Write the structure tokens for this entry.
Amino acid sequence: MTILAKHAAYKTAYDTVRNMGIEPLSVRFDDVLSPTEGVLAGKRTILLGTNNYLGLTFDPACIEKAVEATKSQGTGTTGSRIANGSYDGHLRLEQDLAKFYGRQHAMVFTTGYQANLGVLSTLVGRGDHLMLDADSHASIYDGSRLGMAEVIRFRHNNPDDLYKRLRRLEGVPGDRLIVVEGIYSMLGDTAPLKEIAHVKRETGAYLLVDEAHSLGVLGETGRGLAEQAGVEADVDFIVGTFSKSLGSVGGFCVSDNPDFDVMRIVSRPYMFTASLPPGVIASTIEALHQMQIRPELRANLMRNARRLHDGLTALGFETGPEANPIVAAVMPNQEIAVAFWKMLLDSGVYLNLAVPPATPTNNPLLRSSVSAAHTIQQIDTALEAFEHVGRQLGMLSADKRRAGAAS
Amino acid sequence: MRDDIASIFEQVLNRPVEITDDTDIVEDLGMDSLGVMNFVMAIEDFYDISIPLDRITQVQTVGDLIRAVEELRKGA
């Protein structure tokens, strides 16, 4: 018995998986060859679970900018911006983000996780009310605990339930902040943002949208779900990350709130951590630029997403409701999920094994994330692997042909 | 109120349950975190209240739950 014995239930659950001869948490890539290919245990493997939506991790321009900045400004800033000051790049990236979103203000954080921690804990405090979608990402839940606001959950993607809960607060003092995500990370479903914006207007609440998985993915110019739904004016704060479509690491918040900059001297997850290294800032600035001048990346991404989503559906797998770059296949139980995941890996396809409580229901998921850099051939190879393994595990009826699948 | 709560438990768990004030919601009723969330939301609908997250984490037994619901209804 040690101080960590309190987590025994989690250890037991993980050991069950390990006893099946599998270590999902210790996948080690010997090499990463491209945004869509790695080497695992000496074998070339398709990367289908890395959130590398636009495939910019190996973009030559981004790499060159990162190398240049590292050579001229060093490997790290070795301190926070409030203590050590900002580099040119930090300010430039904030300006570029504000301009891209057409907003007055932008603030860069060291990770996307910290952006949610820093923004949520600062926007609402004691006596305020934070309205979270029940399926919110862990960083939103953790951010809600860092502040002192009252936290109320509403049913996932249910504007009526949200409205009902805001109505119950009528006459109660304090600010209300609604938090939703552009694309939810497990099933790839989007928030009903038009309806949520309507509730926000009706009830005088503020609205924050986490566009972590939708930046560069949704909307005419890649500004995310708020742009696609045509409700950007109703969204008071947008939070996002550089670690998916922009291929680096870091987080941000943009807004038109006139008091925005006060966050720089009160948001602890912004103040008490080292700022992003020059190389990361430089590649992110370039990736944001590439994203804007190459709209074909988004078109390729959505083409691949539809091909995988429709292909899996045609094979008879239960998937999420929309063809977005996150495509999840619902598994009947943990045993099949783990076996399926391992057999896909053995046939050269890597994706994410997601088990409860990280999943929205009690079913485990095999979660893929598609990239603009995937070739049609890679998507089809993945579909063939899914079909093959699904048959072997008896999940697909033998006579189910790939009618309607990618042809 | 205990009868109402018992019938909500039965709806969520889809089986008959017997509860007292001392019934531990997770241990005795075998509810996982998703079950607890669905149950809490059904309770919230029934009493037309929202139970804030920090209050939910303080609830372990049926008695705790009854006290929380009573306080929230009074406050409303």
